[in-house]
Amino acid sequence: MKIATWNVNSLNARREHLLRWLDEFQPDVALLQELKGEDDKFPMMEVNAAGYQAAVVGQKTYNGVAILSKTPIAVTATRLPNLVETDGEDDQARYVEGIVSSDHGGVRVASIYLPNGNPAPGPKYDYKLQWMRRLYAHARELLKAEEAFVLGGDYNVIPEPQDVYGPENWTGDALFLEQSRRALGAIVNLGLTDAFRARNAEGGRYSWWDYRAGAWEKDQGCRIDHLLLSPQAADRLGQSGIDRTPRGWEKPSDHTPVWCTLD
Question: Which domains does the chain have, with CATH numbers?
Fold first, then answer.
């Protein structure tokens, strides 16, 4: 099973990119973020014709997440569960979770669009940290079931200095603040595995490049898109990597897909 995550940065602008990538890369499961459109704007007919079912949680103009799968999807959540009581309601479309079938039983997958948090400090950064506390609580609950699951998406967190070009330039950014990195580390330390890092020890491998200042051409990016695996999924981890190809297409997303295989 090949599972990939990709922040498409507006599906309306990147519809043909998505369909081309599905045809060429052939993931079994694709976790999409930042659709920037309501459910009825999702190109369901085209995605179905490409061989995929879809579970979509859209939102007008902002956010939006989806799970695409070659096999049926049993949706289990359309918002991040375990709301911390003091956090109040959250109507942002940042999380969808479901179980996809496979030859070896179902695998639970979630598509995550974690808040950016800038400017920090401030209300947006407070929301980011609240959201990460909720994700920590939910991951801890999922682990109790001792099942294979993959929490994939745009985490908007740079784990280590080796995961960003020029880390000294990011010290005040919400993606690289120590508190953000500790919060992500706490989630991983529950017993999850960073699929990319488990198979790729080298630094300087990125999943996002700014549109400005020739960042893509100079390969000055950062790694903020992650696939976190439960122990049962990590036991089946085959290969993992970053598919840089779509970032080189005309008018691309600023992100590129990150993928892994489960044997």
Answer: 2-262 (3.60.10.10)
| Cα distances (angstroms) measured from residue 181 to each of 25, 169, 170, 224 | 31, 16, 12, 11
To which residue do tokens 């859209």 refer?
58
Quote the pLDDT of residue 105.
73
Please report, for residues 119, 143, 144, the alpha-carbon distance to residue 191 in angstroms, rounded to integers and kept in the order given.
31, 8, 11
Instruction: Assess whether the previous peptide bond of 121 is cis (omega < 30° from 0).
Output: yes
* Partners of residue 53 on adjacent β-strands: 69
Of 120, 7, 118, 115, nearest to 65 by C-alpha is: 7
Token readout for 198 is 């488990």
pLDDT along the chain (263 residues), means of 10: 98 98 98 98 98 97 97 96 64 96 85 98 96 96 97 98 98 98 98 98 97 97 98 98 98 98 95
pTM passes above 0.85: yes
Residue bearing tokens 């190809």: 245
Backbone phi, then psi, for 120, in 5-degree steps?
Answer: -120, 135
Residue 213 CA to residue 174 CA, distance in Å, equals 21
Q: Which residues pair with 259 in a beta bridge?
A: 4, 241
H-helix segments, the chain: 11-25, 44-49, 123-143, 178-188, 195-199, 231-234
